[in-house]
Amino acid sequence: MSDLRPLRLRNSLSGRVERFDPARPDEVRMYTCGLTVYARGHIGNFRTFVGQDLLRRFLEWKGYRVLQVQNFTDVDDKTIRGAGEAGETLRDYTTRFIELYHADADALGVRRAHHYPRATDPEYIAAMVRLVERLLERGAAYRSGGSVYFRIAAYPDYGRLSGAAVEGRLAGARVDADEYDKESAADFVLWKATEDGEPTWDAPFGAGRPGWHLECSAMALELLGSGFDLHCGGVDLKFPHHENEIAQSEAATGEPFVRHWFHCEHLLVEGRKMSKSLGNHFTVRELIEEGVSSAALRYLLASVHYRKQLNFTRDGLRQAETAVGRVNALLARVPESSASGPFVPADPGVRACLDRFEEALNDDLNVSRALAEVFFALRQANQGLNRKDAEDGAGVAEWAAAIRSMNEVFGVFEMEGAPDPSSGEDLVEEIEGWIRERRDARRRRDYARADAIREQLRARGIALEDTPDGTTWRRLD
RNA sequence: GGCGGCGUAGCCAAGUGGCCAAGGCGGAGGUCUGCAAAACCUCUAUUCGGCGGUUCGAAUCCGCCCGCCGCCUCCA
Predict the structure, then answer these.
(1) Gap from A123 CA to B69 C1', in Å?
(2) Are A465 and A471 in contact (CB under 8 A)?
């Protein structure tokens, strides 16, 4: 698989699209920078998570076994402040937002990671302490004012990820209180000395709490090992977060930290940067409560290349809704094959379509070209259905199976919508009763009556469609 | 100020030197239908922000200009 048709993926470390080769032949070890859990994640966060999910699903589609770790940052200034204001323990407070994250991610069909380490989990605090000790031993860290800092001078490769202009970037950096404790302005805190009222953990180098960057290094090294394959996050994390992760990890282990860095661009809302002050800040939950389907939401988030800013608009959601609906309508008419095992198309046309699909995604995840293949298959299937001769039945089934296969990567079709309380057996029986009555009316050529029944059901959100084989119905959104 | 990205039809969006500039949404016409709806078919950018240049040939390379956005500080 991967030998003949390698994935080519942009590596932020080199700035180039490179062949993606995991360290072990069939396994991909993947780390995702997750949320800081002081608030519910917004659609910007989920653009990144959906982008990473697409990458993971494609790797799995290609046959890799993926081991994914996604952390939660549950100790920092914002979580501490939030918990204090809410009068809750830090643990309880952050747990709430972790649960909300899972609710939103599940709604969007984001596959679950295999591990969700939290910074304050005892085993990871211990791992962080060990990492700091190692850095102290190696002279890559120093103690000052009760805190421990990373000495950038001890790591000559600093700046490889975010570009050479590190000094320039830091020159304008605001001077904060602990600046005076540092040997160099670029040094960053690994372990913060305890302050009044803040959570604190004992350590050989003094009680305190982990600095921002330390947790990801510790958890990634602990769960995935040094030199793992993929480290993912939003573009904003490149500097300083990921730069610092690389520095502290490599200074501690003496080995390359990560093989391939994957960064997702941010999204814009109606052409503007999303921010609380502009009031264009949405959560997944809010949009779904407004009636946006999670499928349309996911489609919009997944349909723009991960390195391009995505302009999130109402019109875009509407377009996504229509596009997803067309595919779902076809799939609803063609039942899923009960055949087990991998899908091997017999039709050369179907095979070629899947080949082009894979080729598109192999090319640095070209989702636009891949989606074009989904719609190509859709057209083929619908054409087959229109011809409706028995000979074509198998062809339609294969095209539908191809769409379902491609959907393993996109995950946007046949998502179960919000359960409708009025969709019980009773309603179905009632609708079928109306359809029978309308059929009789049509046989009598009583079209006024037939149209009245259709209108009355349409007003209730049920669309009737007459086909040569009888009348079908579907729910309008 | 430093660094980076983008500007392709009404909207979204592929395409980075050479077949008719993918695909989706929308629109127009048609097939089917009692009428619809759905589906399918055809059409919908002689042109790729503007102006120059390189080339037999450029949306694709170079230069200048215009416009939009992001990063450089917490941030997915």
Answers:
(1) 42
(2) yes
* More confidently predicted of A14 and A23: A23
Q: Which nucleotide's C1' sits nearest to the alpha carbon of A466?
A: B37
C1'-nearest nucleotide to the CA of A313 = B12
What is the reported pLDDT for A16? 86
Q: Are strands A141-144 and A147-150 parallel, antiparallel or unpaired?
A: antiparallel
Please check the confidence at residue A165 and state whether its pLDDT lies above 90: no
Is the minimum distance from the CB of A359 to strand B below 7 Å? no
Q: Tell me, what's the pLDDT at A422?
A: 54
Q: Which of residues 308-347 of A touch strand B (CB under 7 A)?
A: 308-311, 313, 315-316, 318-319, 322-323, 326, 329-330
B24 nearest neighbour residue (CA to C1'):
A323
Residues A34-62 have a mean pLDDT of: 95
Percent of chain A with pLDDT over 70: 92
Cα dihedral across residues A73, A78, A82, A84: positive or negative: positive
Return the closest nucleotide (C1') to the Cα of A188: B73
Q: What is the mean pLDDT of chain A?
A: 89
How far apart are the C-alpha atoms of A62 and A250, rounded to whole Å? 31
Going along chain A from its start, the domains and CATH numbers come out as 8-264 (3.40.50.620), 307-410 (1.20.120.640), 425-475 (no CATH)
What digits encode the pLDDT tens for the residues A442-460?
999 999 999 999 999 988 8
Among chain A residues 421-460, those with CB within 7 Å of any atom of strand B = 442, 447, 450-451, 454
* Distance in angstroms (rounded) separating the CA atoms of residues A281 and A276: 6
Nucleotide nearest to A49 in CA–C1' terms:
B76
For residue A31, give Cα distances in angstroms to A14, A84, A216: 19, 30, 9
Q: Could you report the per-residue pLDDT of A390-414, keeping only the tens digit for each?
A: 566 668 999 999 999 999 999 999 9
For the complex shown, is ipTM > 0.90?
yes
Task: Answer for the pair A36, A77: CB distance below 8 angstroms, yes or no.
Answer: no
Segment A146-167 mean pLDDT:
81
Helical segments of A225-302, H only: 243-253, 284-289, 294-302
CA–CA dist A77, A179 (Å, integer): 17
